[in-house]
Amino acid sequence: MHLLYEEGGDIKIATVQSASGSGDAESWQATSLSGKKIKLKAKEVWLRFEKPQAQLVMDEASALSKDIDLQLLWDCAPDEEFGLVDVSLDYFGAQANIAEQVALGIALQGAPVFFRRKGRGRFQRAPLEQLQAGLAALERKQKELEQQAAWQQELVSGVFPELLRSQAKQLLFSPDKNTSAYKALIAACTQAGETPAQLMIRCGAIDSPLDYHQGMFLKAHFPSGSAHNESIGVDQAVLSAAIAELPIAQVNAFSIDDSGTTEIDDALSVTPLDDGKHRIGIHIAAPGLAIAKDDSIDQVARARMSTVYFPGNKITMLPESVIAQFSLDAGAPRPALSIYVDINSEGVLDQDSLQMRAEMVPMGANLRLEDLEHLVTEESLVDESAQFAYCQELSVLWKAAKLLHAGRQEQRVLAGLRPEQLGVVDPSALARDFYFQIKTIEGLEKVEIIPRQRGSILDTIVAEWMIYCNSASGRLLADNGLPGLFRTQKGWGPLRTRMQTTPGPHEGLGLEYYAWCTSPLRRYSDLVNQWQLIALAKHGVTAKMVAPFPPRDATLMGIAADFETCYQAYGEYQDRLEKYWCLRWIAQDGGSRNVFVRHMKEGMSRVELIPLHLPIPELATHPRMTRAEVVIADVDLLQLSAGVRVLHIESPEVIANDASPS
Known about the structure:
Elements: E1 2-7, E2 10-20, E3 27-32, E4 37-41, E5 45-49, H1 54-65, H2 70-76, E6 82-83, H3 84-92, H4 98-109, E7 115-119, E8 122-125, H5 128-156, H6 168-173, H7 180-192, H8 196-202, H9 209-221, H10 236-244, E9 253-257, E10 266-272, E11 278-285, H11 296-304, E12 308-310, E13 313-315, H12 320-326, E14 333-343, E15 349-368, H13 369-372, H14 391-414, E16 433-441, E17 444-452, H15 457-479, E18 486-489, E19 497-500, H16 524-539, H17 543-546, H18 554-587, E20 593-601, E21 604-607, E22 613-615, E23 627-636, E24 641-649, H19 652-657
Parallel strand pairs: 9-15
Antiparallel strand pairs: 1-2, 1-5, 2-3, 3-4, 6-8, 7-8, 10-11, 11-14, 12-13, 14-15, 16-17, 18-19, 20-21, 20-23, 21-22, 23-24
């Protein structure tokens, strides 16, 4: 005997091996068509039959079920609940055979739009209104499938469907995976053997791999776009009131930046005193005078946390209109938070002379590294006939900067670290700074990558005095019990450098305190610290009562964590786009390029001329800084990878004797 039953929504047939019980309590040990041993009870069985064979019945029923007219079956069925045998007599007539009855069972089970399941082998036809709604839904689904298939074929052929063009970037970067458009895209990728990005570039839906890398970053960090809302700006009444109470500083300040800097946060001044002494001023742009915690500009700055830098462009933390009002541009006094310290004729600082005040600082010049750096040397700074701007001031700053550097190295040694040498240690060492210049030539983007060695006198002057400003600011906050965002470094491991709200040493810099405060136009941490410092400058010992962030403020702790996360993500994006443009540089003049590389560690090497790191397994066993000539080809701008073939590995003797700049 054979039994018809349902399992997991499917109609199946099993052959009885043995039986027990009787009536409603009867049960069977049976074998399914797949060979599975099962036990069935009487209430689970839809039909029982002796002949024909089970497999023949199932094969014939499966074929017949595809031809059953569900609408006619619905018309034949009674309004009340019915069984499989009952409706088979109405549909096939009194001579309905087992195969036809099983076919009806398969059709009924697979047509929930037409029939409701009421139990094992029992059904009831759906009400007319529900049937009509269900059929309409099926028709829509069929049209969607047809549309999906049409889109899929267009995509495979290299044509992006016009109806999807407006949602191209959404499909790539933040898709709704339940839509027909996304399903068509994924099906097309599977058929073409491509990633969504590769297919959409081929179809012209996105312009280039650069568009893809930028889109991924914007989706994650600027989902509403990177442009600032033009309606957000400084309240002019608040700014005027803040400036009106500021004194004019009796200094002639100047900034030192590269030509690409438009957010000028910091400047320096040197004022002669009696007995060969000088007063050094470090002047920091003061947007904190007019931006208040939780106002509209603060909300923008807190959401962005930092300016995002990458080759060819940047996304500013603050709106351009706000930057223009506070950037320390030359030509007029600008609002600033100034730190002053006196030095003697030898350049030694008098720490007891430290002062801080908010004021209007006259800006005499915005010096540019490219114009001045080659002129500023040890010899020219003591040459009375030197003609470059601010020669005397730079000479005074340089003398003290060397002492500041030496003092920090002493503290590094005490912390168990090696001292860092001053200036350009090795002219043939790999450059660490690069300027990416992207131009459009004959309709094509070309990149020029210009290396720059660190460690010039101007570099050191700016670095040491800004480090001192951050250190002095941290000390002022700590000594007065004000929380801030302190940059600390202690111990070893991946988390040794961190942002925290309480003071701590920075062993790498050789400092007891270090709080970023010199870039409030570019970093939110610096703006937060500036608010705290302004409160101290205005209210002294009572600053804790009026400062925006009191001790143990939970909001400040959250800002510290958010800033760390955001700052790291922005840095990774900058590295990613620098790698993109480095690979573009490799491929832009023919697809491959012969270059020299230096082995760094663990099989990773760096191209000498540009900041591009690539794995070269052949160099893995060679000493660090081993030099080799390689050919780089097969550049993949989506995966940011390339093939490297070693042409020649130089001997250590050749490398040691090679003094050419790299």
